[in-house]
Design goal:
Blueprint lengths: L6 H9 L5 H50 L1 H10 L5 H6 L1 H13 L5 E7 L5 E4 L13 H7 L4 E12 L2 E15 L8 E8 L1 H81 L3 H18 L9
Length: 308
């Protein structure tokens, strides 16, 4: 035979259970605390990375301004005419080697790992990675922003990267497209500067980890305090529920006794009427009346006393 529980019985069973405050608190608060911790740590990292990109872009703009003041006047004529040359001719041109050497001297001791120069048409007229010379970047969003006088920067992770010193691996790089201006003149070209910010990003990661640990400890402490308070409240709820159940049981018992007494009264009165009609002896009648009195005496324990 299969056991089945009717919906009414399930609802009746649930009514007889106290509210599970501790269980609901444990689940919901744990989920909420985890969401808060993850949100705070993620928010911190996003803010820190955005600040890093902004500072890195400003740094690259300052470096580009230095390049344009020192290097651009010397190589302006060559870079202006490079668009008429093929990529191989630019690579083989003596000025390309001189420009590379000048940039190496300018970036010595800096975290700049790569420099590219574009003419106004978007052609790569110079790159420290010579294989990129001659590439067309005219449709690149960063180049277009710089061509219009803006600054465009982004942070990317590179598994391998071709830098001044050769191939480097596992680096975080901020690349910035910076317009070349001298004084208040119009844009004469675009520099793309790559800055290695791996050490700075590692510092952010360490700070993020420390913040995560700190937030976790604070939330665990807060959770522990709240858990103790809620557990005490849960115990009070359970105790009150038990007392309520006991009180209801006593009331039900009293009502049951009252029903039995009322039934006895009804039966006794019917017998009294019958005895009276039959003319039975007085002693038998008094016996039934004594039983009624006894029932009244037994009901005194639950009947509330009236206050004067």
């Amino acid at each position: 035979m299969q056991n089945s529980v009717k919906p009414e019985e399930k609802r009746e069973t649930n009514k007889k259970q106290p509210f599970q405050l501790l269980r609901y608190f444990s689940i919901t608060s744990l989920v909420a605390f985890l969401l808060v911790a993850v949100s705070l740590v993620t928010f911190y990292r996003q803010i820190a990375v955005n600040e890093l990109i902004e500072i890195g872009g400003s740094k690259n703009a300052a470096i580009t301004q230095s390049f344009s003041n020192v290097i651009w006047p010397e190589f302006e004529e060559f870079l202006g005419s490079a668009s008429s040359l093929s990529a191989d001719e630019i690579r083989a041109h003596p000025e390309t080697a001189r420009l590379r050497q000048a940039l190496l001297e300018q970036t010595s001791g800096l975290s700049v790992i790569k420099v590219k120069i574009y003419d106004l048409k978007g052609m790569t007229v110079f790159s420290t990675q010579e294989s990129q010379i001659g590439e067309d970047k005219s449709q690149n969003a960063g180049f277009l922003a710089a061509l219009n006088g803006g600054l465009a920067s982004e942070l990317t992770h590179r598994d391998t990267f071709s830098a001044f010193e050769g191939e480097i691996e596992d680096r975080d790089v901020i690349s910035s497209y910076v317009p070349i201006r001298r004084g208040g003149s119009a844009v004469e070209g675009v520099f793309e500067v790559y800055d290695d910010v791996t050490p700075l990003l590692e510092i952010i990661s360490v700070a993020q980890r420390n913040i995560a640990i700190g937030v976790a400890l604070i939330l665990v402490l807060l959770y522990g305090i709240l858990f103790l308070l809620v557990r005490r409240a849960d115990n009070l709820i359970r105790q009150q529920f038990i007392e309520q159940q006991q009180s209801q049981a006593e009331i039900q018992k009293a009502y049951k006794k009252e029903e039995n007494v009322n039934e006895f009264f009804r039966f006794t009165l019917l017998n009294i009427i019958e005895y009276v009609n039959r003319g039975n002896e007085k002693e038998e009648l008094l016996s039934y009346l004594e039983q009624i009195k006894q029932q009244f005496d037994e009901l005194k324990y639950w009947i509330p006393k009236k206050e004067d």
